[in-house]
Amino acid sequence: MIEDIKKACQVMREGGVILYPTDTIWGIGCDATNEEAVRRVYEIKQRSDSKAMLVLVDSTAKVDFYVEDVPEIAWDLIDVTDKPLTIIYSGARNLAPNLLAEDGSVGIRVTDEEFSKRLCQQFRKAIVSTSANISGQPSPGNFSEISEEVKSAVDYIVGYRREEMGRPKPSSIIKLEKGGVIKIIRE
């Protein structure tokens, strides 16, 4: 696992794109601050960049760095959740502009899964996490379901957890709007 993390970080620092296991499904990832790397992820997924992608971080402290004004309720939601939770925040900052939604928001998930958490810690920046599929096709439940097209398009494929056959669920998604309004996007 340590070698995988080192190699994945090196590839992302050089602007590359990786395929890696997250706290939910396998993801296509890159440096969330690198506009060119983010553009490549949209190309791999064959989707327009008006559809924002989420990012993973390893701690709640990092959320503050990427969001101008984190609503108080966010901390409570992160504390009480017992499964992966992506929160869409307004006022994103310090990220590649083409990663954000048209309204300037971004989805951030604090990962607790061992590999993706350590990857984020080592990389020391937010990492893009989007399902490892071509846009419009079903999300792969595990590594064996990822298409050859996606595998051949990335610069590095993590070896860790490839043999797992479980079908993890995608995260819940909540959008926090002005005035503390909570909008559930996906349960």
Automatic annotation (TrEMBL):
Gene3D superfamilies: DHBP synthase (3.90.870.10)
UniProt entry tagged with the keyword tRNA processing: yes
Catalytic reaction annotation: L-threonine + hydrogencarbonate + ATP = L-threonylcarbamoyladenylate + diphosphate + H2O
Positions in coiled-coil regions: none
A single GO molecular function term of this UniProt record: double-stranded RNA binding
Enzymatic class: transferase
EC number: 2.7.7.87
GO biological process, one term: tRNA processing
Statement: the UniProt record of this protein carries the keyword Transit peptide: no
UniProt keyword list: ATP-binding, Cytoplasm, Nucleotide-binding, Nucleotidyltransferase, Transferase, tRNA processing
Domain YrdC-like stretches: 2-187
Annotated localization: Cytoplasm
One GO cellular component, as annotated: cytoplasm
SUPFAM superfamilies per the UniProt record, alphabetical: YrdC/RibB
InterPro entries according to UniProt: DHBP_synth_RibB-like_a/b_dom, Sua5-like_dom, TC-AMP_synthase_SUA5
Family the entry assigns: Belongs to the SUA5 family.
Protein name from the UniProt record: L-threonylcarbamoyladenylate synthase
Organism: Bacteroides fluxus YIT 12057
